[in-house]
Each structure stands twice: as structure tokens, then as C-alpha cells.
């Protein structure tokens, strides 16, 4: 096998590992990403898997990185062309609810489950989660402030509070879908978002 083909095969194998890691982590948590489990699932040796990532932590970070790409594709990209401010904020929330409703990750939102798993810990995985959440909060806050500046939300709107409450809606939606299998939850989430984003 030529070096070029060997490198391409290595990239494909790495992609397969990351894709499987995201699915497993969404169901069993990031701690469920064991080298032995993934090697068995993918039909490769433990040493072969370790050759791509070296440590379980590196694998967890790679899974979170891929999950962020998926989330961006599912939630931000569909709303990106909407008019900045309230229109885009509504479009983001619609896409966010759809992403949870369609269970893009087989075990629900990986970021929600990972936050519960790592919120009391320290280290690189928690640090990456914090950066990812902060980046998303920054995007949402910018849209809220634009909506206020445009007069589409009340002038006394507390942007940080509104974003906090929108997060609460989405985390509750994820919870009720995953734990209770409640088919009415997306409609409740949409009603909550409509109330929160009412122009007043």
C-alpha cells in the first residue's frame, strides 16, 4: 500500500472511531467511551485504536469536537441566513427544538448529558465544554441584543436572563424526550419559546 493510500485509510478509520464515539457517548456518557468497547464495536484492535488517539481523554475531546460540528450544522446553519436579531433567534430556537425532537444523537443531546457528567469536575474535557457553551451563549446573546436594538424585544430585556431561560427550555425538552418519551414536549417547548420571545 502506498503512503498516500495508507494515510487515507488512517483518516477513514479515525473518522469511523469518532462517529462511533459520538453515538456511544450520547447514550452512555463520555465515560462510556472505553477503548475496549470501541475496538470491539468497530472490529479493530485496541492498539490500533490507541494509535489514533493515545488516551481516552483525547477520544472524549475528539467526540465533543465532532458533536459541536453536528450541532452547528443542525442548529446554527439552518438559521444563519435569517435576518439578524429576533428573526434569527426564532429560527435558531426552531432548529434547536427540531434537533432535539429528531434525536440527531441517539441518546439525546451530547452536550446536555456531558454537562451533567462533568459539571463538578476539572480538566480538559470540562474546559472544552465550558468554551463550547460560552461560545453558544455569546451567539444567542448577540441576537437578543440586536433584537432589543431593533425594537423587536422590550428595551428592558435582560439578554443574559433570556438566554438562561431559553437554555432551560431546551434542557427540559431533552430531558422529557429522553427520560419520559413525551411526544407533547416539543409543542410545549415551542409555546415556551413563543412566550419568551414575545415582543411585549
Brief overview:
The chain is 74% helix and 0% strand. The protein is mostly helical and 200 residues long.
What composes the largest sheet? none
Strand content bin: under 5%
**What is the molecular shape?**
elongated
- Number of extended strands: 0
Write down the oligomeric state: single chain
Summed over residues and divided by their number, the pLDDT gives a mean of 91
Structural class comes to mainly alpha
Query: Number of helical runs?
Result: 9
Order of helices and strands: HHHHHHHHH
Write the layout of secondary structure elements.
Layout: H1 3-28, H2 35-42, H3 46-53, H4 56-76, H5 86-101, H6 110-118, H7 124-149, H8 159-180, H9 185-196
Helix pairs in contact: 1-4, 1-6, 2-3, 4-5, 4-7, 5-7, 5-8, 5-9, 7-8, 8-9
Walkthrough of the structure:
It is a single chain. The protein has helices at residues 3-28, 35-42, 46-53, 56-76, 86-101, 110-118, 124-149, 159-180, 185-196. It is mainly alpha-helical. It is elongated. The protein starts with a helix and ends with a helix.
Notable characteristics:
single chain, mainly alpha
Amino acid at each position: 500500500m502506498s503512503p498516500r493510500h495508507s494515510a487515507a485509510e488512517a483518516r477513514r478509520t479515525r473518522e469511523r472511531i469518532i462517529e462511533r464515539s459520538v453515538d456511544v457517548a450520547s447514550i452512555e456518557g463520555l465515560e462510556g467511551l472505553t477503548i475496549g468497547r470501541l475496538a470491539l464495536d468497530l472490529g479493530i484492535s485496541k492498539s490500533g485504536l490507541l494509535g489514533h488517539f493515545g488516551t481516552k481523554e483525547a477520544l472524549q475531546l475528539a467526540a465533543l469536537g465532532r458533536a459541536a460540528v453536528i450541532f452547528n450544522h443542525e442548529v446554527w446553519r439552518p438559521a444563519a441566513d435569517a435576518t439578524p436579531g429576533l428573526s434569527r433567534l426564532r429560527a435558531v430556537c426552531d432548529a434547536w427544538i427540531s434537533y432535539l425532537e429528531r434525536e440527531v444523537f441517539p441518546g439525546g443531546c451530547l452536550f446536555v448529558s456531558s454537562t451533567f457528567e462533568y459539571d463538578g469536575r476539572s480538566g480538559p474535557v470540562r474546559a472544552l465544554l465550558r468554551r463550547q457553551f460560552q461560545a453558544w451563549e455569546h451567539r444567542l446573546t448577540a441576537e437578543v441584543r440586536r433584537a432589543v436594538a431593533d425594537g423587536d424585544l422590550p428595551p428592558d430585556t435582560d439578554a443574559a436572563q433570556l438566554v438562561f431561560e431559553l437554555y432551560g427550555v431546551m434542557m427540559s425538552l431533552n430531558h422529557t424526550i429522553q427520560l419520559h418519551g413525551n411526544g407533547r414536549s416539543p409543542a410545549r417547548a415551542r409555546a415556551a419559546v413563543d412566550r419568551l420571545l414575545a415582543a411585549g
